[in-house]
Write a structure and sequence with these properties.
By secondary structure, the chain is of the alpha/beta class. The chain is about 45% helix and about 15% strand. The protein has helices at about 15-25, 50-55, 60-75, 90-95, 105-110, 125-130, 130-140, 150-165, 165-185, 195-200, 215-220, 230, 240, 275; strands spanning about 5-10, 40, 75-80, 100, 115-120, 140-145, 190, 210-215, 255, 265. A four-stranded parallel β-sheet has the order 2-1-3-4, with helices on both faces. It has a four-stranded parallel β-sheet with strand order 6-5-7-8, with helices on both faces. A two-stranded antiparallel ribbon has the order 9-10.
Length: about 280
């Protein structure tokens, strides 16, 4: 059986359902048994994330950690968090939760294609945390943010409307905010809050094709740990091929690969003294 993906949700509930829907849509399955096994922990009573990040609210970390540990006890082997802002505590959750966690910002950045200047629609907590900006900068991509006034009058009210299930009002505000970023030079807009795609996608608009859905990008990862084969495939150089020349001579120990479908060597047998050269 495929490994179980745990979903840490409830932040908010509608965004959690949206992630699960997109996980189904992005899984190339032709029958029930080919879908990703999922266990969701959706507890909306967690403290608000943005106030905790900017310093005037209770930390949700203990509550989120309890969620991760609950998912672990149910048999989950990896976790997806259906909330962008919650990734502020990513390192703590990985360290104390004992499970690999798929990072939504990494997934979104991998979906940007050739864009070199992108806008970011996100909560004040996500903007303050900076994990999107750092990942974009590491790829040589400029990041445009909404102004404080735009954040106050468009972005945050759009998110609040989604949480109240007022999607028509949310759509109008989110589209205005995204359009403003595009008018200011963004080639694409990252929807860096799990409520924003629900607002933008409520109905058709001309800016929708230029918006990157972080939720859908995370769903495409479909529960594979970070070392999933499709993210590590590469063509070996001639020199690297020598590291594998004696791979079939039982000279080293093997272990299961990331999804238990193959065996991989714990170290590489080699004519070239790779371990010595690399210290």
């Amino acid at each position: 059986m495929k490994k179980i993906l745990g979903v840490l949700g409830g932040m908010g509930p509608l965004a959690t359902v949206d992630f699960l829907q997109k996980l189904i849509e992005e899984t190339p399955a032709t029958r029930d048994q080919e879908h990703v096994p999922v266990v969701a922990y959706s507890v909306p009573q967690m403290p608000e994330r943005p106030p905790a990040i900017v310093g005037n609210g209770e930390s949700p970390l203990p509550h989120m950690l309890e969620g991760v540990l609950t998912l672990k006890r149910t048999g989950a082997k990896a976790v997806a968090i259906a909330c962008n802002t919650a990734h502020f505590w990513y390192d703590d959750l990985v360290r104390d939760g004992g499970l690999p966690i798929l990072h939504i910002a990494d997934a979104a950045c991998a979906s940007l294609g050739d864009a070199r200047r992108v806008g970011l629609l996100a909560t004040e907590g996500t903007v303050a945390a900076g994990f999107f900006q750092r990942r974009l900068a590491s790829r040589g991509i400029d990041c445009l943010l909404s102004t404080p006034e735009e954040q106050r009058t468009m972005v945050l009210p759009a998110i609040e409307h989604v949480k109240r299930n007022e999607l028509a009002q949310a759509h109008a505000l989110a589209v205005r905010a995204a359009r403003r970023l595009l008018e200011n030079g963004a080639q694409a807009v990252v929807m860096g809050c799990t409520e924003i795609p629900l607002a933008i996608e409520f109905q058709a608009s001309d800016i929708r094709p230029r918006c990157i859905d972080a939720t859908r990008a995370l769903a495409r990862v479909d529960g594979d740990p970070a070392a999933a084969m499709r993210y590590t495939e590469a063509r070996l150089a001639k020199a690297a091929a020598t590291l594998l020349s004696d791979i079939d001579k039982d000279t080293v120990e093997f272990q299961p690969n990331y999804d238990d479908t193959l065996k991989e060597p714990t170290v590489l047998p080699a004519q070239f003294p790779n371990l010595l050269v690399n210290g």
